[in-house]
Amino acid sequence: MTSEEKKQMEELKATVESQAKWIAAQKAKENMKCPKWAEEAYEHYKDYISGDIGSYDFWRNLVVSYRKDLGIKV
């Protein structure tokens, strides 16, 4: 392997490792327990929700809905 090929291989490896970390972070966001900042909204709606696991966007939208129900401008 030439030094140029070795350099390209190292760059490719770094790119793949970076992408793997990003994918893991995205998966963690899709299956997260109710975050502390959404607990009040969860308690309000928990009779209508199947569990305390959801995506980041789910928890964010739940909080927005809760604030709207309380008449808080969002």
Question: Could you describe the 3D structure shown?
Answer:
The protein has helices spanning 3-30, 39-45, 56-69; strands at 32-33, 53-54. The chain has 74 residues and is mainly α. It has 3 helices and 2 strands, in the order αβαβα. It has a two-stranded antiparallel sheet. The mean pLDDT is 92.
Number of strands: 2
Task: Figure out the total of helices.
Answer: 3
Largest sheet: 2 strands, antiparallel
- The order of strands across the largest sheet is 1-2
Q: Give the low-confidence spans.
A: none
End-to-end gap: 59 Å
What is the SS-derived class?
A: mainly alpha
Give helix and strand order, one letter per element, not per position: HEHEH
Mean pLDDT figure: 92
Radius of gyration: 21 Å
Strand content: 5-15%
Helix percentage: 55-70%
Task: Summarize it.
With 74 residues, this protein is mainly alpha-helical. The chain contains three helices and two strands.
